[in-house]
Description:
Two copies of one chain form a homodimer. Chain A has 138 residues and is mainly alpha-helical.
Amino acid sequence: MFSIGELSKRTKVKVPTIRYYEEMGLLAEAERTSGNQRRYDKAGLERLSFIRHARDLGFSIEAISSLIELQDHPDQSCEAATDIAVSQLADVREKIKRLKLLEKELTRMSKGCDGHGVSEDCYVLASLADHELCERDH
Amino acid sequence: MFSIGELSKRTKVKVPTIRYYEEMGLLAEAERTSGNQRRYDKAGLERLSFIRHARDLGFSIEAISSLIELQDHPDQSCEAATDIAVSQLADVREKIKRLKLLEKELTRMSKGCDGHGVSEDCYVLASLADHELCERDH
DNA sequence: TCTAGTATCTCTAGTGACTAGAGGTTCAAG
DNA sequence: CTTGAACCTCTAGTCACTAGAGATACTAGA
């Protein structure tokens, strides 16, 4: 059994975040000492690691909730879990696509001005003001 | 002179968002009719287009504030503007890098399970529970 | 056993960039 | 002059935390 600080150190999840996850129902309510402090065991550590890993991969709290629900019912079909992962993957791909367009546009803008002139002639500012200067949608 | 609804239509920025930008100081306080409704002119339209374009490119409200400040002083050096653009570009590149790692990991996970088994054997859930199963950092 | 210092507790409020809704007023067309 | 859409302000909610206040608990050393 270890304290919330110890759990925090081991999982690299900040203490207030752990409490927040408990409040959101991702973590079961922890056991308490006589002085009302939380105490965790291996199961708690594993669950928090799971949550942290999923968050790192960009899953929402809601999605993680569903994943945990599935984890707690090992006999149920895991279709929902793969669905969530696949949809998360689609999401990530969409974001990458969008960011690549931004990258192109920002690169073009930055190259257009060396920063040594005055605002009036700045290509960065001109590009922002006039969308026509952009090469493509973004 | 046109109404906030008209401005919204022309810029594709929602009405409450326009009011929000005004509150945040991005847009100057609009003139009002005798009945207290906002009225905009070409300058207002252009400024909002600028803001919208910058937001589309992922600039923060704070960054846009600085850019507008520079725009309002055409005689000043535009170094700060290019700095902002370059840092935004670095930010976007960083995000792309990170998302690509996630994409790889999520692809691997999704491929590992067809969704037809039970949760207990689900590779998606197993991967989330055990970081060791991942190929690389993310 | 006492004490000092760190860790923990709960609660409230703030972040960014909006979005939603209530309840009331103004505008423009017919 | 009426009707209905558009507008007004204000408050609160979103997501996933983060920060801070003020109080209590734990733990290591004297």
